Amino acid sequence: MKKILAVDDSASMRQMVSFTLKKAGFDVTEAKDGSEALNIAKQQGFDAVISDVNMPVMDGITLIRELRALPSYKFTPLLMLTTESGLDKKSEGKAAGATGWIVKPFNPDQLLAVLKKVIR
Amino acid sequence: MSIDLSQFFEVFFEESFEGLDVMEAELLNLRPGEEDSETINTIFRAAHSIKGGSGTFGFTSVSDFTHVLETLLDQIRDGRRKLTSEHINLLLQSVDCLRAMLSALQNQSEPDASESQKLKAQFERILGLSSSEEQASATAQAAPEKQTYQIDFKPHAHLFKTGNEPLYMIGELAELGDLDIEVFTDAIPVFDEFNPEDCYLAWRFFLTTSSPTTAIDEIFEWVEDDADISVTLCGGLFEDEAEESIASSPEVENAKPSVKPTPEVVTAAAEKPLAKANAAVAEAKKSQDNASTSIRVGIDKVDSLINMVGELVITQAMLSQLGEQDMTESTVAALQEGLAQLAHNTRDLQESVMRIRMLPISFVFSRFPRLVRDISQKLNKQVELKLLGEQTELDKTVMEKISDPMVHLVRNSLDHGIETPEQRIAAGKDPVGTLTLNAFHQGGNIVIEIMDDGQGLNTEKIKQKAIANGLITEDDELSQEEVNELIFMPGFSTADAVSDISGRGVGMDVVRRNIQALNGSVEVSSARGVGSTFTIRLPLTLAILDGQLVQVAEHTYIIPLISIVESLQIDVKKVSRVGKNLDVLRLRDEYIPILRLYDIFNHDGAIEALDKSLLVVVESDNQKVGLLVDDLLAQQQVVIKSLEANYKRVDGISGATILGDGRVSLIIDISGLVKLSGLRKPGSQELIIEQNAEAVS
């Protein structure tokens, strides 16, 4: 079973993402901010990480940069959840090592469709 | 896959309301010109989360509105725009507006759009946007004919390190239609120079599809900077038509080599959850205001609860083991010990369960910074708000009910208490007034103080007003406290002109009545020119009461322990009869009216002789009365059951409980009882309530 780390400070978004992914047969771990996610990611491997950008303690961009610097996450798909207004965030995220982005708002089907681009 | 999004709504609403509270609190901390980036960031994040969630869950009215907020906050955050007080005011109004919109949605009704439209227009004016620009993307796209595209895809060497996988992209392409693939391997170096982490391959695809070019662009969207990509429409057979469609469809622009991210797809797809949400709305329309409330409980509280239950289970196991043995002297002793432990466990468990309902009073306090800011701005006063004891815990139900009376008292202090800066300077005070909210525990009660350093109560003015209203006569000699008490009387208001803030004439009496309905009390102390303090006392919970069990004839009643001053045997020599049938006991310097409970509740067979029965002196509304009972029984905590819910309201009784032997026992409502007995002191509150009730009706 593919393992995904879902990171979002909003509990409802986290639940939605996690629920959708679990239903699609993924093994999902949740984290509520970048720093928590980084700690979890260091302890176990994931096949993909989906992270919100704006979070307290450690934001998504920093998380992606830190993760990408880890040898075990060199090739891991790191996706960020962003809003359509955040165009410059996308390039900032890419520069930090993000694989791609999922534009908010999205529904569960879109999430799975997008995910198919990087994990099967 | 179909997933019912409505299952996430409750969490979304809860966190959105929390987010709005955070926004409000942080906005109040902002001063234009000295904003710190972390505060702005926190506000931005809250708005951002609400926008993301509302968009995802189909509440487009909320997400559209939050979008403009977020845009403004983003610009301020990035330093592209200076924060002004106009921005803060507008944002605060938006918080209110969002709260209303979300409440409406939570109750499954359509939010009122007029306010948000108005605010949105103001934001757009600040941002220099015209609202039409967002509409542009909504243009419908006609389903194109099948077309063949040539796609050249040459990833840069570092592609794998972005986490992207060409294989999956090719898979995506294949799903769009018929795909012919050519792979170019000529870039693969000799083995010595081969780096396994690099990508050396390139592809050319011919895709025949009816999907729009945006679908192709989307596949390569993430790698447009990490690869050379070109998408061209294959000419030949359909050249004319292709030309035509280039002219007519705005999307075809994207078919040119540069691949642009396109927002269209997302907007179109967002309609779907909305439709679903609307269906859910229609479905559940019948029950208004059915939002289930929930509380967040700290994990430590839950853990201690689990511990308690563990203890309880052990004790129970021990007892049942003892029960199986033959009864000898030693087992009886062990049984008694076990029962004592059970009692101990039960009480601990009870306390732990109660603690779950306890929330820090900061939940109430947190609404005051905003309130004080708005009101003092309106009144042109300068007020500093101090909050003390915010972590003091209080039952959630009590908390919800105390909020309104507190708002009233705070408004009152700001309006009547604290003076304008000019007046304060003239009085030799700091032009900035201080309003302090303080909460602390005292015994089984919580005490909330609302203190201002304003002008204090104007005793003369109050007296004159009371005389004018016929509450007292000119000849009445009233102490300072008694004068202060007058402000809690119905229909009393000293405000010269009825202002917008307070002084509508309904006021302090309602405050007092509401607090009394919670078994609490409110008092005022004041010094002219120095300030006033309103003190609210409340029981920590409404569910459990410390009671004194008393015997009247063969019945057991419960008197709330909190209202008992003392219990004594009556010295008959100090009893005198007043009027027809009222006995009064002189106790030290006070005269205590004696209420015979057997008389009030019509019980036969009670001890009627004063010297053979006991007197429980209780205090209510600053007035002491003695309740005559046959005997004092145990003191214990009782669980309050509502009489109204199970039977009907009974005067003089506030509720009932079930005793250890299974009998129902009634809990005495002292102030109700005093009223019921027809005992009225001249000038006392009860009399006036009746008079005014007549005047009003």
Describe the structure in your own words.
- The complex is a heterodimer of chains A (120) and B (697).
- Chain A has 120 residues and is of the alpha/beta class.
- Helix content of chain A is 42%, strand content 22%.
- Chain A is built from five helices and five strands; from the N terminus they run E-H-E-H-E-H-E-H-E-H.
- Chain A has a five-stranded parallel beta sheet, with helices on both faces.
- Chain A is globular, with a radius of gyration of 13 Å.
- With 697 residues, chain B is an alpha+beta fold.
- Chain B has five domains: 135 residues, Up-down Bundle (Four Helix Bundle (Hemerythrin (Met), subunit A)); 112 residues, Alpha-Beta Plaits (2-Layer Sandwich), CATH 3.30.70.1110; 58 residues; 180 residues, Heat Shock Protein 90 (2-Layer Sandwich); 153 residues, CheA-289, Domain 4 (OB fold (Dihydrolipoamide Acetyltransferase, E2P), Beta Barrel).
- Chain B has a six-stranded mixed beta sheet. Chain B has a five-stranded mixed beta sheet with strand order 6-8-9-11-10. Chain B has a five-stranded mixed beta sheet with strand order 20-12-13-22-21.
- The radius of gyration of chain B is 37 Å and the shape is elongated.
- The C terminus of chain B is likely disordered.
- At the A-B interface, helix 1, strand 4, helix 4, strand 5 and helix 5 of A face helix 1, helix 2, helix 3, helix 6 and helix 9 of B.
Task: Summarize this structure briefly.
With 120 residues, chain A is α/β, with parallel strands linked by helices.
